[in-house]
From TrEMBL:
The keyword Membrane applies. Keywords: Membrane, Transmembrane, Transmembrane helix. This is ABC transporter permease. The keyword Transmembrane applies. The chain crosses the membrane at residues 14-36. It comes from the Bacteria. It comes from Cellulomonas septica.
Length: 52
């Protein structure tokens, strides 16, 4: 997958690395902003019994 992505990106190696870094940051940001908060209520570790 990484080889295919590297071959299909435009520009020299420095530009490709910058594009990949920005893309990785955007995917990580999307996960923390939308995916993880949407999944959190369904996770079993949210039901704690400490203090009850």
């Amino acid at each position: 997958m990484y080889g295919w992505l590297w071959r299909h990106l435009p520009g020299p190696s420095v530009v490709r690395a910058l594009i990949l870094a920005v893309a990785a940051f955007l995917v990580l940001a999307a996960c923390f902003l939308w995916v993880f908060p949407a999944v959190a209520p369904f996770m079993p570790f949210n039901e704690t019994t400490v203090g009850e």
